[in-house]
């Protein structure tokens, strides 16, 4: 890491050191495999966009964390659906952006970078996407061990027994609360 401990967030670049990310937990191996094998190609082919925490604006930088965003939809239970406009509340699914992956290097955990990646996703969606496309929610399929992290960041569990008991329960934030347009 740089001497002044400053990191920047930017789009992934070909040549970034994707193999240096250390996640420290076996259950997080799929996050590392995605970064090493798929993130760049998915980014280039507009399947999912990956933004990396690095110590350099140039290609070839060491990655200390990343977030991957993609389009999605969420099905909400009664009582969790938007009340307004009334006609929209009858739809079973609502447009959303999904945090497909989020990971922070084990050496950086607890320093606030995970929350900063979520804040970036909220700002990115509300400032750039919601201006042009209907999108109401930011969602994530959380690992069970990450639920508390996402709750602390403002996410709520989809209120169904199947979801709460699943290996990767869906959580959401209503972006309408952040939209100032």
Word description of this protein:
- The protein contains 5 helices and 7 strands.
- The protein has 181 residues and is α+β, with helices and mostly antiparallel strands.
- A 7-stranded mixed β-sheet has the order 1-2-3-4-5-7-6.
Entry summary:
The protein has 181 residues and is of the alpha+beta class. The chain is 23% helix and 26% strand. It has helices at 29-37, 39-44, 113-129, 147-152, 161-164, and strands at residues 8-11, 49-54, 63-75, 93-104, 137-141, 156-157, 170-174.
How many beta strands in the DSSP annotation?
7
Approximate shape: globular
Radius of gyration: 17 Å
Number of helices: 5
Indicate the percent of residues in helices.
10-25%
Q: Termini, distance in Å?
A: 38 Å
Estimate the mean pLDDT confidence.
91
Largest sheet, described in full? 7 strands, mixed
Features:
181 residues; alpha+beta; 7-stranded mixed beta sheet; 5 helices; 7 strands
What's the SSE blueprint?
Blueprint: E1 8-11, H1 29-37, H2 39-44, E2 49-54, E3 63-75, E4 93-104, H3 113-129, E5 137-141, H4 147-152, E6 156-157, H5 161-164, E7 170-174
Parallel strand pairs: 4-5
Antiparallel strand pairs: 1-2, 2-3, 3-4, 5-7, 6-7
